[in-house]
Specification:
With 290 residues, the chain is α+β, with helices and mostly antiparallel strands. The chain has eleven helices and 14 strands. The chain starts with 7 loop residues before the first strand and ends with a helix.
């Protein structure tokens, strides 16, 4: 006999100020609820405790995509469908568009939000590696303060973040790098669509006269958090891409990532795929300079 689902309360406020005031008064009571693509699965499975939810889906202040000369800023409620439809994102940030296109099916893409994907804090999420490789920042707001923090500082442990109980994630800001930046994104899963990643790899590079002047590398599903691989980046920066450089970078990445065995894959498989994707990324960059 099927167990009853846990009871819950969903409250909708008229605007962002009301929502933040409610979070401030009872910070541990009201959990934000936007697209619900993750929470509803857990609720249906009876895995959520009795909770109160704050519906933020209707808050216009958390929507919209705005461009300046230096940044592109996305509201936390930007959906995967809206990401794919934006012409600046398609031209300058194609990895994020690819991640959005490979997240679930059309129904999930229409309802799921970029902010929700971040705050849900799954190490296997599709958009975080792209955001890390783009050196994104996130804005965290409460009723009396706002702060921008580098996204690579946001995740502190498995399903843990620096988001305070009275805060909401409001916006994501991407620096516009201009021309010359190479980009590489690969999601490896059991199938091409509607699958949780076994390994997700995103990287950007700027080569100047054959030298790796700048590089950012990020992976998902290989650590307790979406991982920015700072040590591997440092091992590559300032070098030309040759066989010795590739082997040096692979050795550093093997020390930096910490994959595990789980129901979706094995540690050895994730390690091998991660190293292969790094090598492919570097060889593609080398070929552009040949």
């Amino acid at each position: 006999m099927r167990a009853y689902l846990p009871s819950y309360q969903l409250r909708t406020t008229r605007n962002l100020s009301e929502a933040l005031a409610l979070r401030g008064r009872e910070p541990d009571v009201w959990q934000p609820f936007a697209g619900g693509t993750d929470l509803m699965v857990l609720l249906e499975a009876g895995k959520l405790p009795h909770k109160n939810y704050l519906n933020i889906w209707n808050l216009a202040e958390l929507r919209g995509i705005k461009a300046s000369g230096e940044h592109l800023t996305l509201g936390a409620l930007t959906t995967y469908t809206e990401v794919q439809a934006n012409p600046i994102l398609r031209e300058e940030f194609p990895m994020l568009c690819q991640a959005a296109s490979e997240t679930g099916g059309l129904a999930i893409q229409n309802r799921g939000t970029l902010g929700g994907n971040i705050v849900n804090a799954s190490p296997a999420a599709d958009s975080p590696p792209a955001l890390l490789a783009y050196d994104a920042e996130v804005e965290l707001i409460s009723s009396n303060a706002a702060r921008w923090v580098p996204y690579h500082e946001f995740h502190t442990g498995y399903k843990q973040t620096i988001l305070r109980s009275e805060e909401l994630l409001a916006r994501i800001r991407l620096p516009r790098a201009g021309k010359g930046l190479t980009q590489y994104y690969r999601k490896v899963g059991t199938r091409k669509a509607q699958a949780i990643s076994k390994v997700c790899f995103a990287a950007t590079a700027l080569l100047t006269e054959g030298v790796m002047a700048e590089v950012r590398i990020a992976l998902g599903s290989v650590a307790p958090v979406p991982l920015r691989c700072i040590k591997t980046e440092d091992a590559l920066r300032g070098l030309t891409i040759d066989e010795a450089t590739i082997e040096k970078a692979k050795a550093e990445l093997a020390r930096e990532i910490v994959p595990i065995d789980d129901i979706r894959s094995t540690r050895n498989y994730r390690l091998r795929v991660g190293l292969n994707l790094l090598e492919d990324f570097l060889r593609k960059n080398a070929s552009t300079q040949a």
